[in-house]
Amino acid sequence: MYRYAFQGFDNETMAKAVGLDLPISAKNSTMVCKAIRGKRIERAKKILNDAINMKVAIEFTRYNKDRGHKPGMGPGRYPIKTCEEILSILENAEANAHQKNLGSELVVRHVCAHLASRPFRYGRKRRRKAKRSHIEIVLEAKKEKTEK
Question: Which domains does the chain have, with CATH numbers?
Answer without folding.
Answer: 15-141 (3.90.470.10)
